[in-house]
Amino acid sequence: MSLAEPLARYTAQIEQGLDALLPTASTRPARLHEAMRYAVLGGGKRLRPILTLAAAELFDEHTHLTGGQRTARPINWSAIPTALPAAVAIECLHTYSLVHDDLPCMDNDDLRRGRPTTHRAFDEATALLAGDALLTHAFALLQEHYAHSPALALALSAELASAAGSHRLIGGQMEDLLAEKNAAATTPETLDFIHLNKTAAMLEAALVMGGLIGIGPEPPDWPAAQGRAQSAAAARPHAQALDALRRAGRHLGLAFQIVDDILDATADTQTLGKTAGKDAHAGKLTYVKHYGLKTAQRLAEEQTEHALDALRKLPGDTRFLLALTHQLTTRKK
Ligand code: GRG
Description:
Layout: H1 4-21, H2 30-40, H3 47-57, H4 61-66, H5 80-101, E1 111-112, E2 115-116, H6 118-121, H7 124-145, H8 150-164, H9 169-181, H10 188-215, H11 231-266, H12 287-291, H13 293-312, H14 319-329
Antiparallel strand pairs: 1-2
Helix pairs in contact: 1-3, 1-5, 2-7, 3-5, 3-10, 5-7, 5-10, 7-8, 8-10, 9-10, 10-11, 11-13, 13-14
The chain binds geranylgeranyl diphosphate (GRG).
Residues 44-45, 47, 94, 97-98, 100-101, 113, 169-170, 173, 198-199 line the site of geranylgeranyl diphosphate.
């Protein structure tokens, strides 16, 4: 399947959604809103929001009513308007993490997405506040845009909060900072913890949030069916689809990170755009350092296969998500 057309279409929707759903720079305090917009609107692959839109697209009215039966419909883009605020929310949250990660107290990076980092373009305090505001804005978007279904708004917020919290994204970042100070004592379990939480958690959330929007937060006759014998059966396809999305995100996240380590280890420093001239993580443990290049390649392939297997368990037309997974895990830069 050609990825170019659907990717361009998803990306265009996301760019429009981001522009429309971020606070305008003309509202006070303009400097804060300018910094938020600078951070978010400055490029990036938009991987997480693309996953949200694509996951929502897997389900349609039919699957909603029948509890997740397989359909063979091509992408019809019908879920995009509904899923767009959630896609924007996850990109806001991801961007906050990048803005904070770039700060002098963490990675002290000068460049992000090919431009000066937010604290370089503005100042440290403004970047800190812009990150805080993006994190808060993500949850405000969910409350505002899914108010018609409190159960959905709650499920989306819970999913995002869990992925972004102290056990996952922030926990992964904390363990990463600790590991950087003591690379020699870093174990492979810690390495997995870091990447399952820093990278995979947000990919899981992106897919599951799309699934929640596509399927609905609960089986159709829930909670009316609660306590009845058939309630477990009614819940099963719903739970299975969300579980498959979560597993796909987890394995895609690990594969993505291992491939990142392989590319870092094999790249010529001239072509290594993101750290050219400055290797802030020289001593850090990576999959390649711990397992060697060959085993790291095998691990990346295994994780990719697990992600593809999970995607194949989903209803609807999964060709886009399968092709995207393949592209992300075989990328050369
Ligand atoms: C500060 C709470 C907090 C967390 C920071 C995102 C992050 C955690 C650190 C950035 C460094 C890093 C390599 C993290 C792993 C996750 C990852 C691969 C981030 C980059 O995501 P991409 O490649 O970036 O999707 P774009 O710019 O395309 O959105």
